[in-house]
Specification:
two-stranded antiparallel ribbon, 2 domains, Transporter substrate-binding domain-containing protein, ten-stranded mixed sheet, D-Maltodextrin-Binding Protein, domain 2
């Protein structure tokens, strides 16, 4: 991978100067987002970052937060970064993703790539073909503080964004609050499959609503202090993700949580 040699140079510099560097405070969402993060501090994203710590000599504090609070504390500088959000214009106002020379987000240095499902209430007349949403009632359930809320509002949809978890969003659909939901995480697929409350009432659309690169986003205040430090960390993420050992781990976890 093209970042390997660059990463090694930056790692050496980091090890020379980073012995006394303060640990970085990184927040992640306090609800299950299997296999990426879990409230107890486990998950593939944490495993990835622990390997980055060993490679670079960095030390990270992993802090569970409600997603909106994670964003706000990254904005204010209480947190140095966020684990696993997507890059979008709203977040660019207070955070920095790994970037290509043209300033666009760099998928090669993302933590992972994943899709967001769209769910339909059975018999509602709502549909999604991957490009066009038919939603007679014009109401969609989505999770609070997620970029999907902005995307749906741009499509002219009224968004109920009170749910914190995917399971809460499915419950709202099941009682008829909306005919469409856009919910993050494979936990939504698992809830739909395993929870009898949703059987026969809700289906997953054949096409995902969107596919994203998810990053370690660094707060602008932290990045402006030490840009080279964070470039080295992003390069290390790419290096670790390219290893055969991590690829096997990721593939095994994805198989465990894949939709049946």
């Amino acid at each position: 991978m093209r970042y390997t040699s660059c990463a090694l140079v930056l790692f050496t510099a980091g090890l020379m100067t980073g012995v006394s560097a303060a640990p970085l405070n990184l927040c992640y969402e306090d609800i299950p987002q299997a296999p990426w993060t879990m409230p107890d501090g486990t998950g593939l994203n944490i495993e990835l970052l622990k390997r980055v710590e060993r490679l670079t000599g960095e030390h990270f504090n992993y802090i569970s937060r409600p997603w909106k609070r994670c964003e706000e504390e990254t904005r204010s500088g209480v947190m140095d970064g966020m684990i696993g959000p997507s890059d979008n214009p709203r977040r660019r106002a207070f955070s920095v993703p790994p970037q290509k020379p043209d300033g666009s987000q760099d998928p090669e240095r993302a933590m992972y790539h994943d899709h967001v499902d769209l769910f339909l209430r059975t018999g509602s007349g709502a549909s999604w073909d991957g490009k066009h949403l038919v939603n007679p009632r014009g109401v969609v359930v989505a999770q609070r503080s997620y970029y999907t809320v902005d995307m749906l509002q741009a499509l002219g949809q009224k968004v109920i964004d009170t749910p914190k978890s995917a399971e809460e969003g499915l419950r709202l659909m099941a009682v008829g609050a909306a005919d469409v939901a856009v919910l993050m995480g494979r936990s939504a697929e698992e809830s739909l499959r395993d929870d009898p409350r949703f059987h026969g009432k809700i289906v997953v659309a054949r096409q995902p609503f969107a596919t994203f690169d998810f990053h370690l986003l660094i707060g602008r205040k932290a990045f402006d202090r030490e840009p080279a430090r964070f470039e080295a960390i992003w390069n290390a993420i790419a290096t670790v993700r390219a290893t055969a050992e991590y690829r096997r781990l990721e593939a095994a976890q994805l198989r465990q949580h894949e939709h049946e």
